Amino acid sequence: MIVWLLIGTLCIFAADILLKQAVEEKISPGEEREILGGVVIIRKVYNKGAVLRLLEKYPKVVKTASSVCGMLMLFYDGVLWSRKGRWLHKAGMVLFTGGAWSNIFDRIVRGKVVDYLGFRTKWKKITKITYNLGDLAIFLGAFLVGLGELLD
Fold first, then answer.
1. Do the beta carbons of residue 117 and residue 42 sit within 8 Å?
2. What are the φ/ψ torsions at residue 117 (nearest 5 degrees)?
3. Which of 76, 97, 123, 144 has the fewest CB neighbours in a 10 Å radius?
4. Which of 16, 39, 20, 12 is nearest to 110 (CA)?
5. Cα→Cα distances 3→63, 95, 143, Å
6. Per-residue pLDDT reduced to its tens digit, 6-56
7. Which residues of 91-108 are buried (b: 16+ CB within 10 A; e: fewer)?
8. In angstroms, rounded to a whole number, what is the distance separating the alpha carbons of residues 28 and 149?
9. Does the pLDDT value for residue 92 go beyond 90?
10. Does the keyword Hydrolase apply (predicted)?
């Protein structure tokens, strides 16, 4: 079973890395492409900080802290995955870990995270926020972990 959890994590990681690379190659900075009837916006935005550009002036701090947290996360996953049950929690950590490591990879290799997904809303500030698949996986994973904790 651990193999399937690892494969799921690697699939999230690889999908986001491949999408980031496609955006790097095909989208110019400032360019926006609408898909799904304009609800989703594809654009290229770089983030040297953490979520919502937090600590963007300190990319080395963000890179170091992310890498340390990523290593701790892998250790936690190993302990969690070796135990029986807790499937919702495990599924959440698969998403969370895959998404986190795709962003950590970007910070280490590119020196910044490539974000590419926006959502058109009636609120301009929210429409301007740009995500990537890894960010969405982290959010959904955290939700599933929290739900798993409530249900256990």
1. yes
2. -115, 125
3. 123
4. 20
5. 28, 15, 23
6. 899 999 999 999 999 999 999 998 899 999 999 999 999 999 887 766 677
7. bbbbbbbbbbbbbbbbbe
8. 42
9. yes
10. yes
C-alpha dihedral, 82 to 86 to 91 to 95, nearest 10°: -80
Distance CA 123, CA 50 (A): 22
| Beta strands at 40-47 and 32-35: parallel, antiparallel or unpaired | antiparallel
Looking at the structure of the chain, the number of domains it has is 1
Q: Are 113 and 103 in contact (CB under 8 A)?
A: yes
Count of alpha carbons within 13 Å of 93, Cβ hemisphere only? 22
Point out which residues pair with 114 in neighbouring strands: 46
CB 113 within 8 A of CB 106: yes
Model-level pTM? 0.89
Number of neighbours of residue 150 by Cβ within 10 angstroms? 8
Domain that holds residue 48: 2-151
